[in-house]
């Protein structure tokens, strides 16, 4: 049996939150997530980056709302009543990530994370920590710290 060495994961298990974007399953570590909210309209910001839908008030703090599908190079998400906003903390800043729906919260073994294959994909491979083969299909494990560089987060906050 081949053991796949993963880096950056402490312990034998990892808690992840899985969500869907355009019939594809993605996940992030639960430690980066602050809360999950139902869809609510945001206020557009003129001249913002194309993946920024707008901003919303989260208990007195204004946070940017990101179209995660667009950020991953996919077709823009058309939010509806089933959509969700996954509120995450990245580089000490809170952002809202629009997803089609949250699927599950799972505990997986760190050894279940496999490297992303060396093929052309619909998203920048640097954003992916790996792929998890799950009973319901494949889940792309995203790395929010690499997806949102510190400089980029500073620009979102401006």
From TrEMBL:
Transmembrane segments: none annotated. Residues 13-153 form the CheW-like domain. Gene3D superfamilies: CheA-289, Domain 4, SH3 Domains. It comes from the Bacteria. InterPro entries: CheW, CheW-like_dom_sf, CheW-lke_dom. PANTHER family: CHEMOTAXIS PROTEIN CHEW, CHEMOTAXIS SENSOR HISTIDINE KINASE-RELATED. This is Purine-binding chemotaxis protein CheW.
């Amino acid at each position: 049996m081949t053991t796949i060495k993963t880096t950056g994961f402490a312990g034998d298990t990892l808690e992840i939150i899985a969500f869907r974007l355009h019939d594809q399953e993605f996940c992030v570590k639960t430690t980066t997530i602050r809360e999950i909210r139902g869809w609510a309209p945001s206020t557009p910001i003129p001249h913002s980056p194309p993946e920024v839908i707008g901003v919303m008030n989260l208990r007195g703090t204004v946070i940017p709302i990101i179209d995660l599908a667009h950020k991953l190079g996919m077709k823009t998400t058309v939010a509806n009543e089933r959509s969700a906003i996954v509120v995450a903390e990245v580089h000490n800043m809170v952002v809202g990530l629009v997803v089609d729906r949250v699927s599950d919260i799972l505990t997986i073994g760190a050894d279940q994370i496999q490297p992303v294959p060396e093929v052309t994909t619909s998203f920048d491979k640097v954003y992916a920590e790996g792929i998890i083969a799950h009973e319901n299909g494949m889940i792309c494990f995203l790395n929010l710290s690499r997806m949102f560089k510190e400089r980029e987060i500073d620009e979102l906050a401006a």
